[in-house]
Amino acid sequence: MLTVAAGERTDMFIDPAGGEPVLTAPRLLGPAPAGDFQLAARVRATLAHTYDAGVLLVWSGERTWAKLCFELSPQGAPTVVTVVTRGESDDANAFTVDGDAVWLRVSRLGQAWAFHASHDGAFWHLVRYFRLGDPSAPALVGFEAQSPTGPGCEVTFDQVTFVPAAPAGLRDGS
Question: By its UniProt entry, which InterPro entries does this protein fall under (predicted)?
């Protein structure tokens, strides 16, 4: 189990409308292994303020990274959200979550990445499939917590698993 506490007004985002990068969120990253793999965890967070989140992160540089988030939406609903940053960040909401936890999984498949989320850690919903940037560039993977509008957020990552292979299928729930 890993617990990460984000401080006040911490985030990782580069607004596509302009502005300086915000890279203040605490993160724990390690080198991504060579080849295909899956990193998954159950993410539990005290989501109290808009955009509070627990995150699985793929990092390739200060302007090239992607995050799979369990995040509090502006409507006050826990939501699975993805952000892919290639110079500027985009932002895409997937689905809302009942409760205070969700399973998140990041996978590398050759030169591509996949983000999946699950209500139970057994059936995985494809949330995003993308290429991040130069596939030969080294990548780091790991965990992040953020609280862009609030005083802080505590996130627990547990039941962390690593599989040195790609999922059996992207869209079949495996």
Answer: ConA-like_dom_sf (IPR013320), DUF1349 (IPR009784)
Please tell me the total count of domains within the chain: 1
- The answer to whether position 48 is within a domain reads yes
- Residue-wise pLDDT for 123-133, tens only, equals 999 999 999 98
164 domain-assigned: no
Residue 169 in any domain: the answer is no
Buried b or exposed e, range 21-53, using 16+ CB within 10 angstroms: bbbbbebeeeebeeeebbbbbbbbbbbebebbb
Segment 116-119 long-range contacts (CB within 8 Å, at least 24 positions apart)? 116/167, 117/68, 117/80
- Does residue 26 belong to any structural domain of this protein? no
Q: Which CATH number goes with the domain that contains 120?
A: 2.60.120.200
**Rounded Cα–Cα distance for residues 51 and 144 (Å):** 13
